[in-house]
Write a structure and sequence with these properties.
There is one protein chain. The chain contains six helices and 43 strands. It is mostly beta strands. It is elongated, with a radius of gyration of 33 Å.
C-alpha cells in the first residue's frame, strides 16, 4: 500500500497539458481568454463517471487528495504487483482519468493504464490514450494520445500523436497532427518541449497577413534559449512587395543588469531600392542599491522607415528618435541624474519660428545635463524644504546653443484645522543662460508666493457599500513679471490643461519660462465609489481661475489673460446605468468666449460581449475628430467589430477597421479589413488579417487582438 501511495503522490496531472502547449510555444502556456463555465462534467467526460463510482462491489483506495476505484484487484505478493480490472479511475482536484485496466508494480513503483480517457477540470480539457505508462524514473509514456479543450458536443479540433515521452525536464513527441473539423491542418514529425519552468529553443507559431504597402506577409519566429538568463528571438518576415526582413530581439537578465536589444534588417527593399535597418537598445545597470545607469536609444536607416513598416498611425507619424544615457543616484530624501540626450531626426528639418523658438518636433540636444532634487522636513515645526537644481548644456543645429543653470528652492508648511489643510509656500526661482554666441549672459530671479487650502469630506452610506467624497479647494498664487524674452525655449511647453494644472503655480511645463500671474483658483471634486469593487460610478469636477492682473509672458500656443478674465474647466463622468457611462470634459476661456478643449463620449459595456463607444474631441487649432467603435454580437456567437476615426479638420479618415469574429469555448476566428493613415503626404495603407485561435493551444495567422484592444475601448475577450 505504501508503494501505491508513493507513485500516486508523484503523478503530475498537468503532463498532457504541458505536451500540447509545448507543441506550439517554447516560452509560455497559452490559456483561453474566454471563460467557459462547465455546468455538467459529463459534457467533457466520455464515460458516465457517476455510474462508475456507485457500484457496491468496487474497490476504493484513498491516498491524500487522490482516489482510485476499480471493479476488482488481484495482488501478486511474490511479484509485488496489483492487477486492477473491471474499470479503473484515478481522481483528484486536477485530474480525472479512467481506463479499462491497470497494472501497478509496488516494487519499482511503475504503473500501466490501458485505454485511458482523462479530463482536466481546471482548464477544462480532455483526451485519451491507448496506454498510459509510468516507469521507474517517474517518466510518463503515452501511446496514441489525443488532446482537446472542446467538449463532446463540439469537438472542432483535436491533437493526436503516435507517442509522447514526458520526463521531469523535457518531453518528446512523434508524428503530431492537429485536426480541425476532422481535417489535418498541421503536421510535425518530431518535437521536444519543456516540462518545467525552463524555456526551450524551437520554432514559435508562424503568422501571416496582407497589406497594400507590403503585399502578402509570412512570419516564422525562432526562439533560442541561450542560457537561463539569456535568450534570442529571430523572425524571418517575408513580404511580397519588399523582400525578406530578419528581425532579432536579444534579452539578458542578471542580478545587476537587464538588456533588451532589437535589430531589424531588410536587404535591398524592392520598393525602396536600398537596405532598411532599425535598431533599439534598452539597457540598465545597477552597481549598487542606490545607483543606476540607463542607456536607451533607437536608430532607423531612413526617415520613411516607420511610414513603411509601422503598425499604426502613432508609429508612422514619428518625427525623431531619442538616444539617452543617464546615471542616477538617490538617497532617502534626494535623487540626482547626470546624462546626455541626443536625437535622430526622421522628418525634414523644421524651421525655427524665431530665435530660440523652434518646432517641438526638432528638440534641443542636452550634452550633458545634471539635475538634483531633495526634500526635507523638520521634525518639530514640520516645515518642508524642497530644492530642485540643474545644469544643462544645450545644443540646436538651427538655433542657439549654450548653458543653463537653474535652482528652485521652496519652503512650505502644512497646517491642519479639523480636516482642513492649509499650506502656505514661498519659492525663489533663479536661472542663468550662457549662450555660445557673442550675446551677453542673461539671468532671472523670480519669487513665487502661494496659499493652498483644501478639505476632504468623506461619508460612508448606511449600507456600507458607497463612499462619498467631496473635496473643495482654493489656491492663491502671485508671481511678479520679469522679462525673459532673451531666454531660449529648450524644454518649455504648454501643458494639457486639467483640474490638477489649475492648481499649479507655474502655468508652463519646463524651466525656461516662469509665467507671471496674480490669480485665485477654486474648484470642487465630487465622487461616489462602490467600496467593494473600487469603481467610481459618479465623478464631477468643476474649477475656475480668476485672473487679477494682465499676464505679460506668453509662449507659442498660449494666449494672454486679462485682468478679470476667467478660465473654466468642468468634467463629468457618470454611470447612467450599470452598462452605460457618459463622459464630458470642457475647458473654456470666458474672457474671449472661446472653447479651448471639449470632449464628449458615451461608453456602453454590458456583462456580456456588447461594446459601443462614441466620442467627439476638439482641441483649438489642433484636433477636431469623431471616434466610434463597437463589438456587437449578431447571431450564434458571431460578432460584428469595427472602429472609425475621422478628422473633421482635415476632412480625412485617420483609421478604420471592420470585421467579423466567431468565438466559442473551443475555438475562434477573426477576420478584419483595415485602412489607416500611414504617410505624411496623406497616403493610406489597406490590410486584411485573419486569426485562428484554438483555445488552450495557440493562435494562427495575424495577431489582431492588439488592433481590437487599441481601437475599441474596454474591449476584451472575456
Amino acid at each position: 500500500m505504501n508503494s501505491i501511495d508513493s507513485w500516486i503522490k508523484k503523478q503530475k496531472a498537468y503532463i498532457c497539458m504541458i505536451f500540447v502547449i509545448g507543441c506550439f510555444s517554447s516560452t509560455e502556456i497559452v490559456h483561453s481568454q474566454n471563460i467557459c463555465i462547465v455546468n455538467d462534467m459529463d459534457d467533457f467526460l466520455p464515460m458516465n463517471r457517476s455510474n462508475a463510482s456507485q457500484s457496491s462491489s468496487e474497490i476504493r483506495i484513498t491516498s491524500g487528495k487522490n482516489i482510485i476505484t476499480a471493479g476488482q484487484a488481484i495482488y501478486d505478493e511474490s511479484g509485488g504487483s496489483i492487477n486492477v480490472s473491471g474499470g479503473v479511475t484515478l481522481e483528484n482536484s486536477d485530474l480525472f482519468i479512467e481506463g479499462q485496466a491497470a497494472l501497478i508494480n509496488t516494487n519499482d513503483e511503475t504503473a500501466v493504464l490501458k485505454n485511458t480517457r482523462y479530463f482536466f477540470p481546471n482548464i477544462p480539457a480532455r483526451g485519451s490514450s491507448e496506454e498510459f505508462r509510468i516507469d521507474e524514473e517517474n517518466n510518463y509514456i503515452l501511446t496514441k494520445p489525443s488532446y482537446t479543450t472542446c467538449n463532446q458536443i463540439d469537438q472542432s479540433w483535436e491533437l493526436v500523436a503516435d507517442e509522447i515521452l514526458v520526463s521531469s525536464e523535457e518531453g518528446k513527441a512523434k508524428n503530431i497532427v492537429l485536426r480541425f473539423k476532422n481535417v489535418p491542418i498541421l503536421y510535425l514529425p518530431r518535437l521536444t518541449f519543456p516540462t518545467n519552468d525552463e524555456r526551450k529553443s524551437g520554432f514559435l507559431i508562424p503568422s501571416f497577413g496582407s497589406s497594400s504597402k507590403r503585399g502578402l506577409e509570412f512570419e516564422v519566429p525562432y526562439y533560442w534559449n541561450i542560457a537561463p538568463n539569456f535568450d534570442l528571438e529571430t523572425t524571418m518576415n517575408w513580404m511580397e512587395k519588399r523582400g525578406t526582413e530578419i528581425k532579432s530581439e536579444l534579452r539578458f537578465l542578471s542580478s545587476k543588469q537587464t538588456a533588451e536589444i532589437a535589430f531589424n534588417h531588410l536587404p535591398s527593399d524592392d520598393l525602396f531600392n536600398d537596405n532598411r535597418t532599425y535598431s533599439k537598445i534598452n539597457y540598465q545597470f545597477n552597481p549598487s542599491l542606490n545607483t543606476k545607469i540607463e542607456v536607451t536609444g533607437e536608430y532607423a536607416s531612413d526617415k520613411n522607415y516607420f511610414e513603411d513598416f509601422g503598425q499604426n498611425t502613432n508609429e508612422s507619424s514619428r518625427t525623431h528618435l531619442a538616444r539617452e544615457i543617464v546615471f542616477k543616484s538617490f538617497g532617502k530624501n534626494w535623487m540626482m541624474n547626470l546624462g546626455m540626450i541626443n536625437y535622430q531626426m526622421l522628418d525634414d528639418q523644421p524651421k525655427c519660428l524665431a530665435v530660440g523658438i523652434c518646432d517641438q518636433n526638432d528638440p534641443y540636444r542636452l550634452k550633458p545635463y545634471m539635475n538634483f532634487n531633495g526634500n526635507w522636513q523638520s521634525k518639530n515645526s514640520k516645515i518642508n524644504l524642497n530644492v530642485d537644481s540643474e545644469v544643462v548644456f544645450f545644443e540646436h543645429l538651427q538655433s542657439e546653443s549654450g548653458k543653463r543653470i537653474r535652482n528652485l528652492t521652496t519652503l512650505s508648511k502644512l497646517f491642519n484645522f479639523s480636516g482642513i489643510e492649509v499650506r502656505p509656500a514661498v519659492s525663489l526661482d533663479y536661472a542663468k543662460f550662457n549662450p555660445d554666441s557673442n550675446k551677453e549672459d542673461t539671468d532671472r530671479t523670480i519669487p513665487i508666493y502661494s496659499l493652498d487650502i483644501k478639505a476632504n469630506l468623506i461619508k460612508i452610506t448606511n449600507d456600507g457599500d458607497i463612499r462619498q467624497l467631496i473635496q473643495p479647494r482654493v489656491m492663491a498664487v502671485y508671481i511678479p513679471f520679469e522679462d525673459q524674452s532673451e531666454f531660449p525655449f529648450i524644454d518649455t511647453l504648454m501643458p494639457d490643461f486639467n483640474y490638477f494644472q489649475l492648481f499649479n503655480e507655474n502655468r508652463f511645463i519646463g524651466n525656461d519660462r516662469i509665467g507671471d500671474t496674480s490669480k485665485i483658483s477654486y474648484g470642487i471634486v465630487a465622487k461616489r465609489t462602490r467600496i467593494q469593487s473600487g469603481k467610481d460610478f459618479f465623478e464631477f469636477t468643476l474649477g475656475q481661475t480668476l485672473h487679477l492682473k494682465d499676464e505679460k509672458i506668453v509662449i507659442p500656443g498660449d494666449s494672454i489673460r486679462k485682468s478679470g478674465s476667467l478660465t473654466n474647466l468642468a468634467s463629468l463622468d457618470i454611470a447612467m446605468t450599470e452598462s452605460l457611462k457618459l463622459k464630458l470634459d470642457h475647458y473654456w476661456d470666458s474672457d474671449v468666449d472661446e472653447m479651448k478643449r471639449s470632449q464628449i463620449g458615451i461608453e456602453y459595456k454590458d456583462s456580456g460581449s456588447k461594446r459601443l463607444n462614441l466620442a467627439y474631441r476638439f482641441r483649438k487649432q489642433n484636433i477636431k475628430q469623431i471616434h466610434g467603435s463597437f463589438s456587437w454580437p449578431i447571431k450564434d456567437q458571431w460578432s460584428f467589430i469595427g472602429h472609425y476615426k475621422y478628422s473633421i479638420k482635415d476632412r480625412k479618415t485617420i483609421d478604420q477597421f471592420f470585421g467579423l469574429n466567431y468565438d466559442n469555448c473551443c475555438w475562434s476566428i477573426s477576420a478584419v479589413s483595415r485602412k489607416h493613415l500611414v504617410y505624411r503626404n496623406g497616403e493610406t495603407d489597406t490590410s486584411f488579417s485573419v486569426q485562428f485561435m484554438f483555445k488552450g493551444l495557440g493562435e494562427f495567422g495575424t495577431p489582431i487582438n492588439r488592433i481590437f484592444e487599441d481601437g475599441i475601448f474596454a474591449y476584451d475577450q472575456s
